[in-house]
């Protein structure tokens, strides 16, 4: 029995040298692996460094930059707004050899931005230029009341716009309430510089070049004549003829002139001993107002040519 117990201890109770060596190798391997995964250890692996990165909240890994961008892609960059084509005018301080007072303004119909001379807010009497509003006011009010002007009335309106007929303009001015019509102009077209000439007639209405450009935009957008008659009115203004066909659009190439709507005013003011010449023009993307005043004995032609001269001086090269 004693001999058998010794045999059991030798066979199962005592570890053999080979077994001890194997166990030692395994233990050493586990220690080395632990050291590679321990942050700060000289045996630390790059994987361990990423795993223990403390640059993220709570020391948690968020993966590589590639992994993060895949999970949270950056928002797309906004597309740049398309740039607008420049207007045919360049803002500049004009120093022209012109007798008397002159002023100008241009409104960008796409943005509402206004440029002009330093005195673009100063006013002059409109003369026939205001007829564009009188006809627009008549047509819009007729449409608003459910009425359609007769062919005869439309023919009168044509004569007022194309030929600047004073007699018919006075009749239309009475129909739209005289001073009340100018008050509507100032309100509806958001004019800031202009004023009514109480009981002095349409010709004495005071407008600035800046407000002239606003009046042009008011017509072009349909506010003045309303949606039913705006196209008709603009077409009539493109067909201005005879003595009233001068000024702004004459500075443009002949092919472009036909597409520019205008209404001009010209009058000799004996009280002031001045000539008052005014120009309104409406292009596809712009409206413009030019006004000149000078000694009465210099005649109409001087101011009509200066309206064109001022426009030419402002045109962008190549226009």
How many E strands? 7
The amount of beta strand, in percent, is 5-15%
Morphology = globular
Q: Which structural category do the helix and sheet elements fall into? A: alpha+beta
Number of helices: 12
Low-pLDDT residue spans: 1-14, 42-71
- Order of strands in the sheet with most strands: 2-1-7-6-5
Helix content range: 40-55%
Largest sheet: 5 strands, antiparallel
Mean pLDDT: 84
Q: N-to-C SSE series?
A: HHHHEEEHHHHEHHHEEEH
Distance between the termini: 126 Å
Radius of gyration: 43 Å
Can you characterise this structure?
- Mean pLDDT is 84; it is low at 1-14 and 42-71.
- The protein has helices at 2-13, 17-37, 46-51, 65-71, 131-144, 151-163, 166-175, 179-188, 209-220, 226-238, 254-257, 300-314, and strands at residues 101-108, 114-116, 124-125, 206-207, 261-269, 274-282, 286-295.
- With 319 residues, the chain is of the alpha+beta class.
- A five-stranded antiparallel beta sheet has the order 2-1-7-6-5, sandwiched between helices. Strands 3-4 form a two-stranded antiparallel sheet.
């Amino acid at each position: 029995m004693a001999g058998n117990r010794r045999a059991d201890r030798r066979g199962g109770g005592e570890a053999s040298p080979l077994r001890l060596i194997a166990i030692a190798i395994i233990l050493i391997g586990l220690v080395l692996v632990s050291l590679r995964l321990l942050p700060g250890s000289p045996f630390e692996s790059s994987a361990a460094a990423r795993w223990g990165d403390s640059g993220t909240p709570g020391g948690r890994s968020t993966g590589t930059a590639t992994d993060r961008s895949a999970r949270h892609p950056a928002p797309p960059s906004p597309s740049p707004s398309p740039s607008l084509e420049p207007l045919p005018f360049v803002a500049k301080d004009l120093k022209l050899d012109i007798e008397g007072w002159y002023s100008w303004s241009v409104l960008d119909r796409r943005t509402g931005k206004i440029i002009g001379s330093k005195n673009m807010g100063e006013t002059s009497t409109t003369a026939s230029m205001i007829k564009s509003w009188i006809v627009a006011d008549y047509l819009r009010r007729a449409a608003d009341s459910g009425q359609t002007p007769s062919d005869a009335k439309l023919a009168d309106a044509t004569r007022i716009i194309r030929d600047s007929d004073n007699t018919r303009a006075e009749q239309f001015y009475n129909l739209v309430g005289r001073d009340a019509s100018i008050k509507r102009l100032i309100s509806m077209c958001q004019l800031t510089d202009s004023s009514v000439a109480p009981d002095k007639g349409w010709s004495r209405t005071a407008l600035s070049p800046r407000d002239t450009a606003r009046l042009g935009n008011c017509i072009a957008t349909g506010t003045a004549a309303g949606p039913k008659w705006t196209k008709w009115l603009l077409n009539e203004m493109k067909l201005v003829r005879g003595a009233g066909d001068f000024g702004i659009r004459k500075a443009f190439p002949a092919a472009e002139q036909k597409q520019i709507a205008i209404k001009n005013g010209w009058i000799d003011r004996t009280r002031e001993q001045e000539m008052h010449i005014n120009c309104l023009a409406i292009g596809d993307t712009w409206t413009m107002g030019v006004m000149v005043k000078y000694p009465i004995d210099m005649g109409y032609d001087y101011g009509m040519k200066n309206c064109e001269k001022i426009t030419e001086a402002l045109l962008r090269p190549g226009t």
